[in-house]
Design brief:
This protein has eleven helices and five strands, in the order H-H-H-H-H-H-E-E-H-H-H-E-E-H-E-H. The chain is an alpha+beta fold. Strand 3 and strand 4 form a beta hairpin. The relative contact order is 0.12.
Length: 269
């Protein structure tokens, strides 16, 4: 979205269309008339600051894009956009690290909006031990690129076709929500990696059908992991709103035992 060219009405209409809702539906949800919304989108009426925020909230526009909407409309930015190195964010990042460490012996990592790995617990390291191209592990590390790159984790992923389809579908769905050109380029890059296609779930699925498992060979052992994503509720900082924790859980007892033993080895070392 080009805020130097588009009006706030243009941007709101783009978000409404991206969310696939009609003017009438949005107007009803926001508590305004369809006529008023039509005037805002066409530029015939200048929305108040409160109206921009209300429409953005109703459309679930990300905080970063809400700032852009307000800036385009000529209003001050309500949401701080601090860098991760800002001292004001240190308490929050320390809390995130404690959450990650508390997830051990299971792997967990914190990522930003572009899937850049920001923090991780010690249980992640064994999963990365066999990565061929070590440059993929040099900051900034993109978790999805590392996962699917032919010299990253991909050669050790036993259900690569299924996992690749899952990752690409998830990335596409996320980009449909946030309209981020960096994610669009990442999706294009990852789609070019080899890995094949999948139409049915392999019979080796040990997750019980609740998720697409990551089945990966680590140190000669075959692990099966399922993942969950956690985001922070109602943050008022753009950077924190884009932070997520990716947690891995063992899908079977053999994987759980491997992770416990790896954690014990890490502590002993």
């Amino acid at each position: 979205m080009n805020t130097t060219r588009d009006s706030v009405g243009d941007l709101l209409r783009e978000w409404r269309q991206r969310r696939r809702v009609s003017q009438l539906h949005l107007a009803l949800e926001a508590g305004i008339s369809q006529r008023h919304l039509s005037f805002v989108e066409s530029g015939r009426s200048a929305p108040s600051r409160e109206m921009v925020l209300k429409l953005a909230e109703t459309l679930s526009v990300p905080l970063r894009e809400r700032n852009r909407l307000l800036l385009t409309a000529g209003y001050a930015l309500p949401f701080a956009e601090r860098s991760l190195g800002d001292p004001a964010l240190k308490p929050a990042m320390d809390a995130v690290q404690r959450v990650l460490d508390g997830h051990a012996p299971n792997p967990a990592l914190a990522i930003d909006r572009h899937w850049t790995m920001l923090l991780a617990n010690g249980a992640v390291a064994p999963l990365l031990a066999d990565v061929e191209d070590k440059s993929l592990l040099e900051p900034p590390v993109n978790a999805l690129r590392l996962s699917l790159h032919p010299k990253g984790l991909a050669p050790n992923i036993l259900n690569l076709a299924e996992w690749r389809a899952h990752v690409l579908e998830r990335l596409q769905g996320l980009n449909d929500l946030v309209a981020d050109p960096v994610l669009a380029e990442l999706e294009k890059e990852l789609s070019s990696y080899p890995g094949g296609k999948v139409s049915v779930r392999p019979r080796t699925d040990r997750s019980g059908g609740i998720a697409v498992p990551l089945q990966i060979r680590v140190r000669g052992a075959e692990l099966s992991l399922i993942t969950t994503t956690t985001v922070f509720g109602a943050p008022l900082d753009v950077t924190l709103s884009e932070l997520a924790i990716e947690s891995f859980f063992p899908a079977d007892e053999a994987t759980a035992r491997f992770l416990r033993e790896a954690q014990a080895d890490l502590r002993a070392g």
